[in-house]
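Propose amino acids for all 290 sites.
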C-alpha cells in the first residue's frame, strides 16, 4: 500500500519498552474456572467468549484432506467465499489465517513504532500486540482522540459492552488518518450478528483500512482456528508473506468455505441469535426488577 510508511526502521529488541510477556487471562478458560469453582454444576454457561453455542454442523471430510498439504487453489477458494460473505472488494483483499489472534502482531508491525491508540474499554490483546511491536500504546474513550494516532484500533461491535461506531464515523476517522499516513484497524469479530451496515469490509480499497473477521464466534467453531484480514491488496500480500505457504489447515479450508457459502444457515442463525438475545435481555430485566 503506497500510502503506508514502510517499516524500514530496524529496532533492537533491547531498546523496546518493557512488556509483560505473561499470558493475558481470557474468557473461555474452563479449566481455570473449574479450579476456582470445583463444586459448580456442569455444564458451565460461558458468557465470556461470545461463541455461538449452536455450532455449524461439521460435514464428514475426506481422509485425504488430513493427509495432504492444502493447495493454493483451495486457499483462494476460501478467500473467495470470505470475500463474498463479508462484502470485500475481491478475494485479493482477503488473507485467511489460523485465527485473527495471529494477525494482531503482524498488523501491529506494518508501521514503524509510533503512537497506537485504542478505543476502550475492549479486548486487551490489541494493546499487547501493539506494545510488543514497539508502539507507545494508549487507550482512549473518545473516538476523536484516535485521529492523531499512527495506528488506530476500534473493536466494532465492541467487546464487552456491544458499542457500535457508525460506518460514517469510522470512514471520517480513516480519512483524517490517511492525511498523516495512519492506519485504522477495525476488529469486526462480532459483526456477523449485526449490524452489517456498519461494516467497513467493502471500504478497504481506500488504502488505510484493515478489517478483521472471526469465523469461530458466529459459526460456533472456535476450535477450528480460522479468521480473516480484509485490507488493501498491498497489505494482504505482506500478511500472506508473513504467514507462509500453508496459512490455514485443509480441514479449516473445507469447513470454512462450506459454512461461509451456506446462506440459508447464516440467515437462520442470525434470526435465532436475535431472538435468543432478546429473550436473555428480558430474563435479566425480569430478574433485576424482582
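Proposal:
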Amino acid at each position: 500500500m503506497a500510502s503506508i510508511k514502510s517499516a524500514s526502521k530496524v529496532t533492537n529488541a533491547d531498546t523496546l519498552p518493557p512488556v509483560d510477556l505473561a499470558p493475558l487471562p481470557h474468557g473461555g478458560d474452563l479449566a481455570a474456572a473449574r479450579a476456582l469453582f470445583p463444586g459448580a454444576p456442569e455444564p458451565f454457561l460461558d458468557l465470556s467468549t461470545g461463541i455461538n453455542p449452536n455450532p455449524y454442523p461439521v460435514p464428514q471430510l475426506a481422509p485425504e484432506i488430513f493427509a495432504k498439504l492444502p493447495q493454493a487453489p483451495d486457499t483462494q477458494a476460501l478467500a473467495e467465499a470470505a470475500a463474498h460473505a463479508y462484502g470485500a472488494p475481491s478475494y485479493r483483499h482477503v488473507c485467511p489465517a489460523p485465527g485473527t489472534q495471529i494477525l494482531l502482531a503482524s498488523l501491529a508491525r506494518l508501521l514503524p513504532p509510533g503512537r497506537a491508540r485504542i478505543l476502550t474499554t475492549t479486548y486487551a490483546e490489541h494493546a499487547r500486540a501493539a506494545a510488543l511491536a514497539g508502539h507507545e500504546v494508549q487507550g482512549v474513550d473518545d473516538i476523536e482522540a484516535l485521529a492523531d494516532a499512527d495506528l488506530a484500533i476500534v473493536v466494532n461491535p465492541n467487546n464487552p459492552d456491544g458499542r457500535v461506531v457508525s460506518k460514517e464515523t469510522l470512514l471520517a476517522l480513516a480519512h483524517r488518518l490517511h492525511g498523516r499516513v495512519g492506519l485504522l484497524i477495525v476488529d469486526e469479530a462480532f459483526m456477523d450478528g449485526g449490524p452489517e451496515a456498519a461494516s467497513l469490509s467493502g471500504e478497504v480499497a481506500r488504502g488505510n483500512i484493515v478489517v478483521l473477521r472471526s469465523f469461530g464466534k458466529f459459526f460456533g467453531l472456535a476450535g477450528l482456528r480460522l479468521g480473516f484480514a480484509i485490507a488493501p491488496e498491498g497489505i494482504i500480500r505482506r500478511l500472506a508473506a508473513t504467514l507462509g505457504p500453508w496459512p490455514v489447515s485443509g480441514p479449516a479450508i473445507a469447513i470454512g468455505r462450506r459454512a461461509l457459502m451456506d446462506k440459508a444457515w447464516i440467515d437462520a442463525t442470525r434470526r435465532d441469535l436475535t431472538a435468543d438475545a432478546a429473550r436473555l435481555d428480558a430474563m435479566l430485566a425480569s430478574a433485576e426488577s424482582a
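The first strand starts at residue 94 and ends at 97. Confidence is low (pLDDT under 50) at residues 1-13.
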